[in-house]
Structures are given as C-alpha cells and as structure tokens.
Target: Prephenate dehydratase
Amino acid sequence: MSAEHPAPESYSYLGPAGTFTEAALKQVEGAAGKPWRSVNNVGEALADVLEGRSAAAMIAIENSVDGGVTATQDALATLPGLRIVGEYLVPVRFVLVARRGTRLADVRVVNAHPVAYGQSRRWMDSALPSHGHIPATSNVAAAASLLLNEHADAAIAPPGIVDHYDLEVLAEDIGDNPNAVTRFVLVSRSTALPAPTGADKTSIIVELPSDRPGTLLEMLEQFSTRGVNMSLIQSRPIGDALGRYRFVIDLDGHVLEERVADALLGLRRFSPKVLFLGSYARADGAPVGIDPQYGDDNFVEARDWLRDLVSGATAD
Model:
C-alpha cells in the first residue's frame, strides 16, 4: 500500500528514516512488519491517528536535558480522544558527519537541529572554535542537506545515519551529556486499560479552578495526602488569558490502584478540567515504591469502616 494511503494498522513517526523517533518505534513489538508512515511534525502524527490513517503514533514527550516537549504537551491537551499506551526510552547520542573526503580541519560551517546543536555545544566550541551554525529542521535533515548543497561542511546527526546516507563520520559521541535520554510515548485512540504491573505511570493534564493564593498547593495536596509521587509536572499556558495555566503531570502508579484512583477523584472535585491521558507500564520497569499506609488494602478497609458506621453496624 502506498505512503499516501497507508493501511489502518500503520504507525506514524517523525521521519525520515534514521531519527530517534524511528529508533523508539523499533522497540514496539506490535509495529514490526506493519507499514510505517513518516511525517513532518507532531501535529501530523496525531492527526493520522485521529483521522484513522494510522493505528498509533510515536512522539517525543520529554528529554532529560531540555525537559518536556511543549509541542507534544500542547497537542495532547487540545486534541480529544487520544491515549498514551506505552513509553519508550532512547539514549541521545550524536555524531559529526560530512561528505566523503572531508577532514575535521576542513569544517567551517555545521548544519544541525537547534536542540542537537545545544546539546553538543561544548564539544563543538572545543573541537571547532571558529565554526558557524546553520539551523536544520531535524537531525536527519541536517545530514541529508550535505548531499544537496555546499553551504555546510558537516552536520550533527544521530548514530547510524551513514546507514541511510553516503556520508562519513568525523567524530563520535560529541554530545555534552553522556546520560542524555529522550522519552517517547505511543499514542492511539484505544481506551482499553492495561493491567497494572507494579511499575506503571499515569499521565494527566489539569487546569486550576481559579487564580488565587493556595490553588496550586490544593492541587498538589490531592497527591501528597494519598502518597502519590509526581515524576513530572510542567506548566503550560492555556492561551485564553494571561495567568491561566494547565499542568502536565506524570504520576507514579496505575489508575486501577486505589491511591491513584482516589487522588484522581479528589482532583476531579477540585478542578474544572482533568484530562486522563492513560496508565501504562514504565519503560525502565522500575517498581513504584508505596508507603504501606497507602496500599490498596488500607483504602478498602477505610471504605468498609465508613460503610459500617453509616449502616449502624458495630465497628471497632
């Protein structure tokens, strides 16, 4: 089937081939052997899902160096009917590539995506102190441009780019942070909840009910009083007025766990808008630590105790 009319079971990702997003999609077992649709931006990837061109889309949502990907967060907040069904981690590594025959000493101008350039700046300033920078629309586009024009002598690109383009690697591991990693999420229209694994994450987006002192604290108390840890919280402007913000939040735990469910109930009573984006297994598989007082049994026992009080049954 052609790229213009992909099969319904196809998967969309930020392309072209060789991107970190493609590397994330390669981790999805269900995507193996299915058609993959290369798109230009997050909006196009999510539109593919909403309009039925793809079953799911892989998109970047967080980077350990730069934080949340705001384009993704804003899109998920404003496009209804989407759920996160999985997360995947990709180490961020960069290489410097050039046309064959180019030496490092020949490099004067470098083509690079602004994020990649910012994460490789210390190496660039040390190895090429007099270099110039031409911004690129993507990491792969930076490398591909070397074969199309003479404006740049080299490009910052992902490892493995030479598998797709006839280029030469001048330097490896040029990123400033060897521990950098990007978190990707697989998004679909499925509302089916996977069973809790004990190593799960729940993503939500919340709007505050009003702009008054203590409102943010009231929101945070919905989690702290139930022993629910937040692994990410980031504010984004709603856009309808100054001072109006929504919060993108990742919670440690699954919505089918009593403490998480109870926190969401409290949040729903407090906030005019709570958007549930999904509960899914953590990519790192790390078990979520739970204080015994916030275990499921304690919530069930507390409800049973209250029911006995209301019904008039004898209770200790």
Remarks:
- The chain has a mean pLDDT of 91.
